[in-house]
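Re: your question from the hallway

Yes, I did run it. Sequences:
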Amino acid sequence: MTLFQKLPTETGSGPHLLEAPLRRAARQSFRAVQPFVLGPRVLDVGSAEGWIGELVSRQMHHDVQLLDVVDMNRTELPHRLYDGNSIPFPDGAFDTTLVMLTLHHCTDPEAVLREAIRVTRSRLIITESTYRTTPGRWMLWLMDSVVNACRSRCLMPEALHFRRVTEWRAVFREAGLHLRAQRHLSRGLHRHVVFVLDLHEEDAR
Ligand SMILES: C[S@@+](CC[C@H](N)C(=O)[O-])C[C@H]1O[C@@H](n2cnc3c(N)ncnc32)[C@H](O)[C@@H]1O
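Structure:
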């Protein structure tokens, strides 16, 4: 058992030191994406504790489905586990799909993106931790590893796919998505970027 697995965590019982900052981060992420979420059916891929989805559900009154490869859910929202490859919902089942700080944790980010597109009717909202320099990338990896190991009792797959903004934009273009908006949530060590992507070009104008 590693040191991180011995720590009290979100998935264990009792309060956790990270709960307040994680809830604050969820509120910040929600505020950034709220103007772009189209309802009424919303899928949150890589939902972790489910706190962003809970805000979408409570404040926007949309039907939110949580999806993840590990069960860290702390909400009453419907939650599905899956194999990390084939999303267990039919084509076009959701109006908006959120993929927030998740693609860099996926074993095959392009495969998850293809599946997210398949189950979405209109819009994907993707947030990513990006970097500009090689030292910046190593700092991001270190910060992400420590926070998410504590947060998930080392259950969360390691972040192996950090990319630059230009690289993510190329991935989205290649997947046939249309960029409607791009925003920075933070620009320090954690260069947190929101990409709002439409499946149909006319919606992106
Ligand atoms: C850093 S957390 C992000 C949680 C939340 N979306 C947020 O913005 O705070 C990354 C999440 O992605 C999940 N994840 C990893 N691989 C995945 C995959 N292939 N499909 C869906 N979720 C995955 C992890 O289990 C974890 O809950």
